Structure formats: C-alpha cells, structure tokens
Amino acid sequence: MHQRGMPARTAVTATAVAVGAAALTELTGLASYVDRHSTAFSTSSAWLGAAARHLPGEPVAITVRRDGAVVGLAALAVRRRRGVTRVEVLGGGLNDYAELFHDDVDAADVLAEAIAAWIRGHRRWSLALSQLAPEDPVLAGLRARLPGATVVAGPPMPRIDGPGTTYRLSRNRRRKPHTALNRLASDGLAATSLEVDDPEGFERWLPAVIDVRRGRDHGSGRRSHLDDPATRAFYEAFVRAAVAEGRARMHLLVVGEEVLGFATTMTDGATLRLYDGRVAQDWLRYRGGIVCEMAAVQRAVADPGITTFDWLRGRTEAKFGNAEIHRCELRAASHAWIGAVDAWEARARSRVKAMLPDAAVRRIAER
Predict the structure, then answer these.
(1) In sequence order, what E strands does the chain have?
(2) What is the pTM of this model?
(3) Pairwise CA distance, residues 277 & 263, whole Å
(4) Which of 71, 50, 44 is nearest to 238 (CA)?
(5) Which residue ranges does the record assign to the BioF2-like acetyltransferase domain (predicted)?
(6) What is the third-level CATH fold of 163-306?
(7) Regarding the domain delimited by 13-157+326-334, which CATH topology (the fold level of the hierarchy) does it fall under?
C-alpha cells in the first residue's frame, strides 16, 4: 500500500521475444490470457496453438509484462524467402480475424514499440499484418514507428445483425432448402439433415467433409487449402479443439453415408460465424451447401442469444444480410523495392490465373 509522503512506485515493464519452440511454449502458457481477450475463433488459443504447431514458418511470441504479469501479446509468424524476412500474424491468410492483445493503451504502445524494434533488427524485411481492427492502438503505434507503412482496407465481411428480430428472412430464402429437399425426394433419394456437435460425430464425418471441401474447390478450378498436408493438419487440429470447447457445430445433408453438403459454424459469444461450408461436386443439382447454410442461419434466428450471423470474408450472392464490416491490413517493408516486388508478384499471379482456362486450373489443382 502506498503511504502518504512516499514517492509512488513505478511499475516495471519488460518485453521479450520468443521464436520457434520457445514461442509455442509461451503461447501454450498464455492460453488463458489469450482466451480472456479473444473475440473470435481465429484469435483463440486453440487456433493460435494449432497454427504454431502445423502451419509453415516459425511462430513468434512478443510479450509485454508489467510487474511480471502479461499485459500485451503479439502472436506472429516469420518466414525467410530470397533473403527477406517476411512477418505476418500467426495463421496468416487463413485468419478472418486477427488481434494484437493488450490490456490498455499503455501496454499497446509498449507492444507496438517491441514489435517495431524486433522487426527493425532484421536487415531486409516485409510486414503484412492482416485482418486487424481499424481502431487497434497497436496498429496506430506500428504505423507511426515504421516509415512508409500503409494501412489498407481488408475484404468485405457481410453479416446479419439481429437475425429473427431486426432482420427477417424473405420467403424466397426460406423456400430454397425445401426446393432442394423436394428435388431429392422426387428423384427417389432419402436425404437426412444432421446437426453434429460432439467429438464422436465429428470424427465420423470429418474425413468425408474434407473430401467434399477439396472436391468442390478442384471442381471450381482452384487449389484447396486442404491439399497441403500442413494446412490439413492445422484444420483438423483446430476443429477438434473447437468441438472439445463446445464452440463448433456441423450441419450436414446426407444420403446414406454420402455427404451432399456441409456448413460448420463457430459460436463466439453472441455471434455465430460460418467457418466453412461446401456443396459436394458430384451432387451440385441438390444444392446441399445452401441447405446446410440456411440451417445454420435458421439456428441463429431461433436462438435469442445470437445477435449476429457472420459470413466472414468475401461478398457473394449466397451471403445475404443487412450489414458489412471491413478489417484492415498493415503493410511495411525495410526497402521500397521489397514492397514493389511483392506487389508485382501479386499482380502477376492474378494475371496468370485470369489467363488460364478453367480446365487447366483444375488440372493444376488436382496434381
């Protein structure tokens, strides 16, 4: 207790950087801190732990401690390519939401300084921290400390605010699942809609769901994230952890053991997020993906505890609602030419993909 007449005690603040196995150990030990601050499944300790264990690159944990207690944490990943150290949030492009954790604005400022000092210690580097909240004070601190840093808006993230209250599903949308189910019945197929939220059920259906995901991606002329063994291991590890926590639920449309479509949701407090979903490539006629997605939306409508249904990144005709948000990305580089090369490579990839016929892209994806 501070006594009158005595100088006020100054808190001791310290920062530390852990890389590789040491970072995984740090993140594991700080799981409860992460989950107290996390606002979405992709900022949870389960997600970060799975990313650190399975995804390419080395995990990095930068911590801020005040009198020994953690008050700030950045979970990053680092890769080295062509002599350049490339830094991103842990989870990289798979993240729909990312977060630089801090207890208060003072901790945020110290964390920004620690991140900037660490990255400036590399000779050649580029930084791309995507899907951060625009109002994040760590973001502002980094932008001020890294010359040439820019912040750009992320992709649109459509959502339904007030499902079942301020937002009402149209009659046409409500009819779509019935139309698909009637088509199955008229073709003599006995289809069943399932909801799975237990570990045993997920283990039974997960291999088939992964096959549906990969098959549909290939049929659409693109590689699937799950073609990569490391990303598939990450996906499986996170889903299993989310099921164990009671966060995940899978909606399925099946005929016997055949999966016609699926939609996997994650519950984050009062928000229900559509984590993943596909229609089976060989069963497109029956629109199993839409049936399952609408089952997820109807679940949000029926649950008074759910105030938002989040479609996550990307605007498509299937994603309807009454609101839309954008996260943002911080970009910076040690040398202007690094940023220029990164931008040129991104444009070149887009041009090549646009020039390839769909059949050629499918052949590439199936290799």
Answers:
(1) 13-19, 58-66, 69-81, 84-89, 101-102, 125-132, 150-161, 192-196, 248-255, 258-268, 271-279, 308-310, 323-333
(2) 0.91
(3) 4
(4) 50
(5) 172-318
(6) Aminopeptidase (3.40.630)
(7) Aminopeptidase (3.40.630)
